Each structure stands twice: as structure tokens, then as C-alpha cells.
Amino acid sequence: MIRSVVRGFGASLPARVVTNRELEGQVETSDEWIVQRTGIRQRYIAGEGETTASLGAAAAQAALDRAGLTPDDIDLIILATSTPNNTFPATAVEIQHRLGMNHGAAFDMQAVCTGFVYAMATADAYLRGGLAKRAIVIGAETFSRLLDWEDRTTCVLFGDGAGAVVLEAVEGKGDISDRGILTAHLRSDGSHKEKLFVDGGPSTTGTVGHLRMQGREVFKHAVGMITDVIVAAFDATKLSIEDLDWLVPHQANIRIIEGSAKKLGIPMEKVVVTVDRHGNTSAASIPLALAQAAGDGRIKEGDLVLLEAMGGGFTWGSVLLRW
Fold first, then answer.
1. 3-state DSSP helix/strand/coil percent for the chain, to nearest 5?
2. Is 85 noted as a catalytic residue in this protein?
3. Model pLDDT for residues 140-165, shown as the tens digit of each residue
4. pLDDT tens digit string along 108-152?
5. Residue 282: closest CA among 122, 124, 111, 151
6. Torsion-angle region of residue 48: left (phi > 0), alpha (psi -120 to 50) or beta?
7. Among 113, 185, 192, 210, which one carries the catalytic annotation?
């Protein structure tokens, strides 16, 4: 059986760090309020010349370097983003060009905060189906450019950044001891659109628009939806929570992360948390957290790692893999 194995990982963050204290001077909020309700202490905000493409390309190059590969070794680039550089072409092709790659295929995937999970599952299907040998999967966002900086309920939550992994098709034994992606589960329900959306777009207003969120409604659904796809991953593999080495959740809110872990019986010592430093970076949050935990040695070869996310749409999903 072909498995999609992580060969390398990388991350890229903007130069500017914006603390909660700095935001206190812009909107009616406080460091104490933000930390208590979200766990966020700072976030990175893209400056002039820093774009989804530039951040994504830097993360992709770092992942290639870590894998000991070059763009010539890659067949496919999938970029998960809700903040493309242009309406078209896909920002993935700009990243492809920045990497000096003019072969293979590159395209964007839009599933908001669940985008990286969707992109990993899609790349896995390509690799297992023989349509590609190696893929770069990127999550990159400049969400700060969608924010209404006068809306204190949303502008404090989000940040910018990019993370990436290189996946390679490797022959496995076909059991749960294999390295690589073991199972993926994707969900969506468009009836929840109004709870988290951007109030603009080419086909409606002809503008970019701003992010709008019903925070309590999102929170109310989040833990249940996350639990759904985590249980599905363990049911599919006959593994259990006790087998898990690391949970790498979407970094939206520390209360959602802690609530999901508690409901599933996962100790927080097994949960990778970066929301305090990065804020909610949407599709970039999971690969940024992966790069942090793998880079500092917490996630090691052979570890069982679960990725999960929930975002606008609503979309939600999980990927269970052996590192």
C-alpha cells in the first residue's frame, strides 16, 4: 500500500509582532480580556511586500531544505488559503514560480481554517492514486488584510504566517505501523455560513470585504464537530486515544482546544499549542504548529500525530498520520 509520508516541514512568519498591549491602543480591549478568552498573547502581521505567496514560498523552501530535496523533485503543489494574492491565477502557481519550478501542477484549495487538512487529504489521494510522487502542501494566510480593525471581537484573534510539509509516496505494509497518512475525514455543512464569513467577493460585492463572526455560535459547534472527526479517525484505524502521541489542533482559541482535549480524554501534555504566539492563522495554523513541535524535537519519527480543524462554512476534518 502506498502511504504519503512527511519528508520535510517548514514555516515562515512576518517580521512584525503585534502584542495585545499594542492592540489596547487601537481598540477597546485589554491584554487580560484577550488572554482569558482566547489564550492569545501576540500575533504576526504582514507588512509591505509580505504576501501569502512570499510567506508560502519561504515555508515551502524551508520544507524542501529540511527534506534534502529541490523543486525538481516535486510534482504537485497544493496551497490552502483564504487570502490569495489575486482572484486568479491561483497563488500556488506564483509560489511554484518563486521556487523556480515550471513543471507539474499547482492549485489553491479553499476550506478556510480546515484548508490544510483538506489539502493534506487531497495530496494523499493524488499520491496514493499514482498521479504524483512528491507534493508540497502549504497553508499560508495574510488574514490581517480581511480584518475590520475597528471590530474588537475579531481583529484581536487573527494573525499571518505560513507552514508547509513535503509528502512523498512510499510503499508501506498496509497496517497501522506504516509511516505516513493512515486516514483522513472531511466534513462540511453550508447551513452555517452566516456564523463565520467574509462580507465581500468578486461575484457579490466586487470587493474583498471583512471577516464577520458570531463567536458564541462558532464556539458552540466547534467542540462537537472536532470530536466527530477525531472519533472517526480512531474508528477507521482501530487505534485509541491511548495510542496517540500528539494532537495538533487548529489554533483558534485555547478554550476550544482545551474543551476538545478534555472531552476526548487527551491530556494537554500531548497537545501542541501555539495560539498564544501566532493567534488564529487559519489554514496556516496546523503546519506552523507542526513545524514548531517537529523542529524542537517533540514530534519524532514514528509518533502517531492527529491533525484536526474546524472553520468557516462550516468545514471540519482530521488527518491521522505516523510521523
1. 40, 25, 35
2. no
3. 999 999 999 999 999 999 999 999 99
4. 999 999 999 999 999 999 999 999 999 999 999 999 999 999 999
5. 111
6. beta
7. 113
CA separation, residue 227 to residues 141, 215, 218 (Å):
25, 19, 14
The angle that helices 254-264 and 215-237 make with each other, rounded to 10 degrees, is 40
**How confident is the model over 12-36, as pLDDT tens digits?**
999 999 999 999 999 999 999 999 9
Q: Which residues pair with 308 in a beta bridge?
A: 249, 318
Angle of helix 115-128 relative to helix 285-295, nearest 10 degrees, comes to 80
- Active-site residue identified among 185, 250, 253, 278: 250
Active-site residue, selected from the candidate residues 20, 85, 253, 280 = 280
| Sign of the dihedral through C-alpha 189, 194, 197, 200 | positive
β-pairing verdict for 2-12 and 315-322? unpaired
Q: What average pLDDT does the segment 78-96 reach?
A: 98
Q: Is 278 a catalytic residue?
A: no
Cell numbers of 224, please? 462537537
Supply 146's cell numbers. 480581511
CA distance 193 to 191: 6
- The amino acid occupying position 167 is L
How many other C-beta atoms are found inside a 10 Å radius of the C-beta of residue 256? 21
d(CA 273, CA 304): 17
Q: Is 280 a catalytic residue?
A: yes
Q: DSSP letter at 113?
A: G
Q: Which three cell numbers stand for residue 305?
A: 500525530
The three cell numbers of residue 164 are 508547509
Position 134 scores a pLDDT of: 98
Distances (CA, A) of 100 to 57, 97, 142: 10, 5, 23
